[in-house]
Amino acid sequence: MNETVQLLLNHRSVRKLKDEPLSPDVIRTLVEAAQMASTSSFVQAYSIMGITDRPKKEALAKLAGNQPYVAENGHFFVFCADFHRHIQAGEMEQTEVKPAVESAEKMIVAVTDAALAAQNCSIAAESMGLGICYIGGLRNNIAEVSNLLQLPNYVIPLFGLAVGVPEADPDRKPRLPVEGVYFENVYPDAEVHAEQLKAYNDTISAYYKERTGGSRSDRWTEQVSGLLKDVKRPHMKQFLEDKGYNRH
Amino acid sequence: MNETVQLLLNHRSVRKLKDEPLSPDVIRTLVEAAQMASTSSFVQAYSIMGITDRPKKEALAKLAGNQPYVAENGHFFVFCADFHRHIQAGEMEQTEVKPAVESAEKMIVAVTDAALAAQNCSIAAESMGLGICYIGGLRNNIAEVSNLLQLPNYVIPLFGLAVGVPEADPDRKPRLPVEGVYFENVYPDAEVHAEQLKAYNDTISAYYKERTGGSRSDRWTEQVSGLLKDVKRPHMKQFLEDKGYNRH
């Protein structure tokens, strides 16, 4: 197994990072690595914000639900879906591109493009011995985040990425069994899923038991049901439409 | 610069792959690498289909707009947004999770999760000397693709990923300038974008001129305007809603 595969298999999210800025060279390399990810039809439909301003980082940490590692880290990125520059490109070429950009299809494109880039950035960081943590909590108060970063229409702050020297070494969390996620040729029926979910519940219960000396033994199905019993971030659909995405 | 960063910076999509199946061990490692990507609140909201059945691969190649590398490759994956197993988890736990799953927020979660996993899979493949190419063309006829793979509600085939031994060595395509994609603290105004777009147009024109002995000299703004002048895949919004996504 080569070094890169080992690195990928060894991932864990790190929620305690040294509060010491990364060098501009490192940041540039991370952005360049992000940019080399595949992009749908070469549209490159994303932007990457880097937050270095201390009050802004503190404000983001608060907006993300008081997550201290949003403020305390080596660097904080915000990955954005971005068709703003394509609207501008259309103006330069006297072409009306808004109807296409405003389609649900192009939202899928932009979210995918941004995520592929972010994952390259994460892996580059981890290959340098840095720790990373994605921050979906930015969507808790997405309009406020958008205002704080002065994002115009056609730019959506999707998630943050905290990067820095790790100050914790969390456990590697076991994923769903391969047989519960990967299927050949035909999607399996409910019984197959039920079997995999039960096996996985045992794995996850054992994982928590071992970590907590027996005080926690959550099932995965219990965790995700708890997480999904309430509608979170009900503002997302309206926000997307307001910003020019997902309109038709 | 370490080996992994070099690998990331050296990416190119390969559209000619050897038609020789990858070994089950390699496929398993690629899936395991995919699974270790970060996932929002540990929901793991995706599935990975592997297509080994020849007639199915041929059918997908046709549905994707006659792209031969969908059928001819070492392995063909389809990455799907998937909250189907969470609905099942909810049933196991007597919890109603559909209202949350059907929100636009959870569509963003599932698309992001699937893309992060796919990018890990791609990087693992490239680290083994394999070539990869993402196939967004599956969304051209997404309902037919969904039927072919017998995907139930709450499963969306987002894109394919062809993997295999490369039979071509395409050029590395220059991305937007770092200064046109990465911004610190504040999103820049239109003049900054215009400047970056002009510089990038020169880069891309030079790239095509050199590759074609002068017969092509497309500007990037011209390419993306051409691509975005028509609404493509206008069925996406309805399809997403029909399958239980993006409803509110």
UniProtKB/TrEMBL annotation, chains A, B:
Domain Nitroreductase span(s) in chain numbering: 10-164
Alphabetical UniProt keywords: Flavoprotein, FMN, NADP, Oxidoreductase
NADP in keyword set: yes
SUPFAM superfamilies: FMN-dependent nitroreductase-like (SSF55469)
Record's protein name: Oxygen-insensitive NADPH nitroreductase
Alphabetized Gene3D superfamilies for the sequence: NADH Oxidase
Family the entry assigns: Belongs to the flavin oxidoreductase frp family.
Top-level taxonomic group: Bacteria
Gene: nfsA
Organism: Bacillus daqingensis
